[in-house]
């Protein structure tokens, strides 16, 4: 799953965030909140804030660039990506649709 990065042109923190993601080869889609009302609304809806850079990954968001926070966020997102959302919890018994 691609991550979503919300930025502003000329923002030095956004530049550091892009470099961080590029260095780790993290695929992402970038949204410029200065030129897109929809991007601003989405950012506000997902984070409750309008500050950038903001990274949405998995089920969580990080607003403002902090390398430690972003590393933890990306690790969490990798774990979420590996989870099968349709897998039944073991306490419910065998999955009748799983014929393995």
Can you tell me about this structure?
Helix content is 39%, strand content 18%. It has 100 residues and is an alpha+beta fold. The protein has one domain: Glutaredoxin. A 4-stranded mixed beta sheet has the order 2-1-3-4, sandwiched between helices. The protein is elongated and about 55 Å long.
What is the strand and helix layout of this fold?
Blueprint: E1 3-7, H1 12-23, E2 28-32, H2 37-47, E3 54-57, E4 60-63, H3 67-82
Parallel strand pairs: 1-2
Antiparallel strand pairs: 1-3, 3-4
Mean pLDDT: 89
Low-confidence stretches: none
Multimeric status of the protein: single chain
The number of helical elements comes to 3
> What does the overall shape look like?
elongated
CATH architecture: 3-Layer(aba) Sandwich
Question: H/E element string?
Answer: EHEHEEH
How many domain units? 1
Describe, in short, the structure shown:
This protein is of the alpha+beta class and 100 residues long. Helix content is 39%, strand content 18%.
